[in-house]
Write a structure and sequence with these properties.
about 90 residues; mainly alpha; Arc Repressor Mutant, subunit A; 4 helices
Length: about 90
């Protein structure tokens, strides 16, 4: 095996390793982002404008991220109704 082939093999292995690390990193970032969005919408009773302010982003950016993470109004209503007290108003069925 010559030096060039050895170098190519090492570069390939390093590339595979960094690609794997990058994929794990993006998965973790996506999980954290989704969790932050869920918590903000729950805290603001599904008010997107208020949740966006809480997350320090534009409302349109929040809407794009909701689509990205497949989060819907119905999901938040179900979550809120599971955690609500007798004093909370129920989520409207839209």
């Amino acid at each position: 095996m010559n030096d060039q082939t050895c170098e190519q093999n090492i570069c390939q292995k390093v590339g595979d390793l960094t690609h794997g690390l990058w994929m794990n990193w993006t998965e973790e970032v996506n999980k954290l982002e989704r969790e932050a969005i869920e918590n903000a919408l729950f805290a603001t009773e599904n008010n997107k404008a208020a949740a966006a302010r809480l997350l320090k982003m534009n409302r349109t950016t929040l809407v794009e991220k909701l689509r990205k993470h497949h989060l819907s109004h119905k999901y938040f209503c179900q979550r809120r109704n599971l955690n609500r007290s007798i004093y909370d108003k129920p989520c409207a069925n839209n």
